[in-house]
Design a protein that fits this description.
about 15% strand; alpha+beta; about 180 residues; 5-stranded antiparallel β-sheet
Length: about 180
């Protein structure tokens, strides 16, 4: 029978996961308190939250929150990073911290993005993507480019007509003065 403490902790974890866009699983063995404080601050700036929880309780909370359970990643001392906003910026902050000299003890095992389980390589690929705002501006540029070309082609005929009429006017003025 589960204890009241565990039931409350699962409820808190489920609430934390309720608005999560992604959850990243990392091993944090031999990180110092100051390193953990530093990575937590960087993740908060990126729109994420880092939580150390018992693996069993996190698996239960993920299942109750409707997320896929990452059984093979939840062995050993794990820390769970929950992205509340853009998962790319959170993954980028997490990987940048783990690549800094002295922070190699934080190793990314994988994660969950929406309903898809990600491997460590897929989390790294996710962090290589540009932020959401940049992707949206690139999409708008790609959509607008053909429209700009069409407007340019359609206005080309009118522009050529105006140029031709201007040339005729200049020829007539030259003939009138000569």
């Amino acid at each position: 029978m589960p204890s009241q403490t565990n039931i409350e902790q699962v409820a808190r974890l489920k609430e934390l996961l309720s608005d999560a866009s992604a959850v990243f699983v990392s091993e944090y063995r031999s990180l110092t308190v100051s390193q953990m404080t530093e990575v937590r601050a960087k993740l908060r700036e990126a729109g994420g939250e880092m939580k150390v929880a018992k693996n069993t309780l996190m698996r239960i909370a993920m299942k109750e929150a409707g997320l896929p359970v990452v059984e093979d990643m939840t062995a050993g001392p794990n820390v769970y990073t929950v992205a509340h906003g853009d998962p790319v910026t959170v993954a980028k902050a997490l990987l940048e911290f783990s690549r800094q000299k002295g922070n190699e003890a934080l190793s990314i095992k994988g994660g969950v993005l929406g309903k898809k389980v990600l491997s460590a390589a897929e989390v790294e690929a996710l962090s290589a993507l540009p932020p959401r705002e940049v992707l949206l501006s690139q999409l708008l540029g790609a959509i607008g480019s053909p429209l700009y070309g069409l407007v340019n082609v359609l206005s080309g005929s009118a522009r050529m007509l105006v140029t031709c009429l201007n040339q005729i006017k200049m020829q007539k003025e030259k003939a009138a003065t000569a």
